[in-house]
Amino acid sequence: MNRREFVAAALALSAAQRIGPATAESGPVTRVIFPFAPGGSGDMLCRLLANYFPAMLDRSVIVENRTGGDGLIGIRAVKGASPDTSTVLVTTGPTMYLLPMVENQPSFDSAKDFVPVSQLARFEFVVVVSPTIGVTDFKQLVAWIKANPAKVTQGTVGYGNTQHLCGILMQKAIGVTWQLVPYRGGTPAMQDLLSGQFNIMCTASGSFLPLVRSKQIRAYAITTPKRAASAPEIPTVDEAGMPELHLAVWNALWAPKGTPRAVIDKLNAVAVEAMADPAFKRRMIQLALEMPPSDELTPEALATLQKSDIAKWWPVLKAAGIKHQ
Q1: Is domain 124-245 classified as CATH 3.40.190.10?
Q2: Which three-class secondary structure state does DSSP give residue 213?
Q3: Burial zone of 262 (CB within 10 Å; 0-12 exposed, 13-18 middle, 19+ buried)
């Protein structure tokens, strides 16, 4: 079986399947750390990407979900790791640049403690609601929220991140406030939404679309200027009358501080190869993830993107006064 046949076979497996474990006889091992719970679209992206590491780096690979602290536990596990491809990090951009701002005593600096490798697929958000709320579109949802703010509870995956900011922007646009409840991962949040523990969520579209299509939850708007190819039936926030709610989150691959440029180039080649593979692209579409343009896959492009989003989102976070307790 050649490399492409191996990858195609691996991509056909469940994205939630653990890769490994490696044995002592398997030689060098790369740990790919994902700092959130398994099962969401980001976790699936991480595991699919990891399928390309063994053939391209001649190393065994293990994906580890290091949950806790809204991503801090996993990030700290990579900070200070050996800069030799033995440990790398896959996470969202906002996790890297927003968490230091909400910590009372920042435990890492993404610009100093990590080296950007490559942007990965990105996702938009969709506003989903429990069927217990008897409204049929986003405008009716807004009216219901205004009339019943005490009944509104919104789940977020994490604290001080883009999902949290989505709730804050919604509150600002609607003109009322309600309770925001942070979760450690998409799967436990999904379970509580289904069981009625909270009634609204602004979340990654991919992992929730099957629930929308099976009518277990309702989707009222997607946070993009135009309808998504993966879910053309869902109106945009512009159509729903809330254009200020444009949100998308990019994922990225990072290496520890001090990683040599030659190693960064090898890691970058893994990401570029994966995202050029038609089988990988098809799976991203199935997960409702959008592929970045090929000219945005360099380490330098990722660093530029990070700086741009810091300039955009830090003022919003600061104005909201969000801090970890």
Answers
A1: yes
A2: helix
A3: exposed
Residue 184's CB: how many other CB atoms inside 10 A? 19
Q: How many CA atoms lie within 13 A of 94 on its CB side?
A: 24
Question: By C-alpha distance, which of 230, 247, 224 is closest to 283?
Answer: 230
Between 314 and 149, the higher pLDDT residue? 149
Q: Is 242 helix (H, G, I), strand (E, B) or coil?
A: coil
- In the chain the first and final C-alpha atoms are separated, in Å, by 52
pLDDT band at 21 (very low <50, low <70, confident <90, very high): very low
> How far is 238 from 221, CA to CA, in rounded Å?
9
Residues belonging to the chain: 325
CATH 3.40.190.150 occupies which residues in the chain? Answer: 3-123+249-320
Mean pLDDT of the chain: 85
Residue 34, helix vs strand vs coil: strand
pTM for this one?
0.76
Which residue intervals of the chain bear CATH 3.40.190.10? Answer: 124-245
The whole-angstrom distance between residue 271's C-alpha and the CA centroid of its chain comes to 16
For the domain spanning 3-123+249-320, the CATH number is: 3.40.190.150
